Structure of Glutamate synthase (NADPH) small subunit:
Amino acid sequence: MAKQPMLKFVKIARDMPEKRSADVRKEDFHEIYAEFAAAKAAEQASRCSQCGVPYCQSHCPLHNNIPDWLNLTATGRLREAYEISQSTNTFPEICGRICPQDRLCEGNCVIEQSGHGTVTIGSVEKYITDTAWENGWVTPAAPAVERPESVGIIGAGPGGLAAADMLRRAGVQVTVYDRYDRAGGLMTYGIPGFKLEKEVVMRRNAQLEAGGVRFVLNCAVGEDITFDEIRSQHDAVIIATGVYKSRDLGGPGAGARGIVRAIDYLTASNRAANFGDSVPEFESGELNAEGKKVVVIGGGDTAMDCVRTAIRQGATSVKCLYRRDRANMPGSQRETQNAEEEGVVFEWLTAPKGFKGDAAVEAVVVQKMRLGLPDASGRQTPELIDGSDYDEPADLVIKALGFEPEELPTLWGCPELEVTRWGTVKAEFTSGRTSLPGVYAVGDIVRGASLVVWAIRDGRDCAEAVLKDFQSAAAIAAE
């Protein structure tokens, strides 16, 4: 009788890949986790209980067939494991690195609920796909038949690139327009290298280009080309711009020098540290934390990226202000722990009231908070504690308060593009169809600021809808 390769969670404990010590890793921008070895990946995959109703799969936005590729990994069938993983996820090596698994697949693992520690799904996913790249199993699109239809995609982030990949593999002619000089969106310039090394993104970009996707970079819609021009050149257009407008802070002194936006700070750091670009704002110190007392305002994943970047740049101190407590923080608990290990101090239940300084910011006026009654979302509402103000010294203040959509109808001279009251593009659920014929929208510009994995899901769903619409149009034309 064959030996049971799975269900070993009772005998084998959960084990993550080795994590570099905080003292070592805070000196560079390399990823902090080592790669699983083959034997360790198989061992950890074998802990899966092979549930009849896999909650890991149902809580994954892409509904990845996790139990199957864990089984294949445990039995040494890595190429098949990769094929299963790739069948539902355009960028599994990226999701394996940056998805908040503790809130999604791993956080809903059945053996975690029974007290045995979750399967290390993200680390195995990363191992499978990195192995696939090393062995040449990841290949560019090679459609059997080239189709005449053309699709223009505005935005080279995860949603736009996922749609581009799906459409190109179906033989559609695809052109991606992006305002930046490199494709990848926030994966390239927003997420630091210690979470996602840039070579991982660049090789995907190169693979898409090798498969026939055409990139038009340094191209801002509304400035270098009009939206109407793009529509006239393609049979369909997908809007995948993401949301880049930063939420702002008010209060006395809010316009002082030294108070910067998270997106500007992270972009400058990624350009300088990961690509070796010359960035004047970084070199002048404006967007560089070296030798400074840094205060980051916010509690999401972007705030975590900022505090950990500031540590690596050589800040003398890094503090994070968040108006709720640790349990109510929206960012990944794993990232919070990593930040604390690296020397970041979290000031829970605090919020900025204003800023002090003459020529430049010198301190944040902080007010202490307490949690009151739950709001409509069920989260306790922060309330001010009168008379609790104090000054927190700061040379650099980074605002990481989240992102909002830009006013696309105005920027693009297209008032007929319908948006919601939040400014996001109004689009049909799953298909991404908008109010304009042949125009679709996906990702954060529809959802608001969200996860990379949701953008990938939207891009894939939209590509399927575009292909169906092309098929319907062809059938009508043939009648």
